[in-house]
Specification:
The complex is a heterotrimer of chains A (163), B (254) and C (51).
Chain A: H1 3-30, H2 40-44, E1 53-60, E2 66-67, E3 72-78, E4 84-90, E5 102-109, E6 115-123, H3 131-139, H4 151-160
Parallel strand pairs in A: 4-6
Antiparallel strand pairs in A: 1-3, 1-5, 2-3, 3-4, 5-6
Chain B: H1 3-9, H2 13-45, H3 59-86, H4 89-120, H5 129-150, H6 154-168, H7 171-181, H8 200-232, H9 237-244
Helix pairs in contact in B: 2-8, 3-4, 3-6, 3-8, 4-5, 4-8, 5-6, 5-7
Chain C: H1 5-46
The chains are: A alpha+beta (163), B mainly alpha (254), C mainly alpha (51).
Chain lengths: 163, 254, 51
Amino acid sequence: MHPKRKSRLFLVLFLLAGVGITVGLVLLALNENLNLFYPPDKVVNGEAPVDRLIRAGGMVKDGSVVRGQNLEVEFVVTDHAGSEFRVLYAGILPDLFREGQGILVQGKLDASRTLVAQEVLAKHDENYMPPELAEMETQAPKPAAPSLPGLDEAAPLNSGGGA
Amino acid sequence: MSLKTLWHKLGSPRWFYELSGPWTTGFGVAAALLLAVGCVWALAIAPEDYQQGNSYRIMYIHVPTAILAQSVYMTLGVAGVILLVWRMKLADMVLACAVPFGLWMTALALVTGAIWGKPTWGTWWVWDARIVSMLVQLFLFFGLYALREAIPRADAAGRACAVLAIVGLVNIPIIKYSVDWWLTLHQPSSNLLTGPTMPSEMYLPLFVNIIGFYCLYAYVLLASLRLEILRREEKTQWVQQQLQQPLPQQPQAV
Amino acid sequence: MGGHGLYVWLSYGLSFLVIGLLVWRVRSARRAFVRQARARAQRLSAEPQAK
């Protein structure tokens, strides 16, 4: 390669590497803050602040949904790994809300670490299938406990890079 | 033809213009056919989703536009490197011509994502890492567009855009891995190469649409490049000869 | 479409509107350019000495 072009190529690579490292460090420093919500274990162990507007997410625990009057609903959010918290909500739930579904709630934790929610959003995973197929799968024995999509992969990174 | 001679020939806009005519027509026809087949398949033939019902059909537009948005950005990054290092004219033209298409694809991915989010998640918008990094990419496209308009000297504008395009490449892995690195409302990608997470009757129309969108990109980019070549080389003899011919050298398809 | 029709059709409609716009823009720009460039060429050949 022409020496002039070679030096320009190195300059370009240098630029890319410099920007890449800078952005990488910034993201590493911000890591915790870039999470959209607190997983159940952080709500339980006290990392999520009390009485401040936060988002928390997990799976709706099977059999935990209790509906009251006037759209009031109470349910438990779990990570299927031993951590769970209670949610109180009054309002319209998204269509996809059901037991076992990944969800995200926005609201304030009270002193007993119950989340009083203002908004409930449903999370869905990257698996799509026709209803008949889904029916067949629920009749067959389940291969593994459903996990919160994206939670497993994210967990080691979050514990690694602290804020 | 060896790769090395191809590389040198790419330095000649005239050679590229003469070669690209039939390809432009071909990509245009392919895009029209594939998108028609893909969308009818997606809307009328593919089964409903067990959870989301019909709203998941937005995926057949959302996923291809999001993939294309990133492919266009990668094209810009590569063109930027080639322009800065080798000063190839064609690279500068690619850097100018691919921006509007990329901008529109990014905007479509964001808008269809919002429309899909409302019935499934329960909200149009949420500030999660995937969505914000995609918004950053939209602003990068706006930036590339504005930068070229703002600098009057064409070669200086091209180089400034090349630097911005290369800097913005950093955002590509952030978009891709945002759903794995952080907790987001957005679901992880359905990996189409190592086994899709859906049955073939749902996945094949998606595949057709993705190829269709790539063909559309190829058509729009080649057609814009050919116009840009005519503009920049208007004073040359070969362009004057092209202009004398009746119009049919322009593909009439699509 | 089970209550979701509006969302689905809106997505597809918007996308095809944008696609149509992108294709139309490049094709009409080319036609306009060829017309203008031909006119410029004719002017030049009509008065070759004028300068």
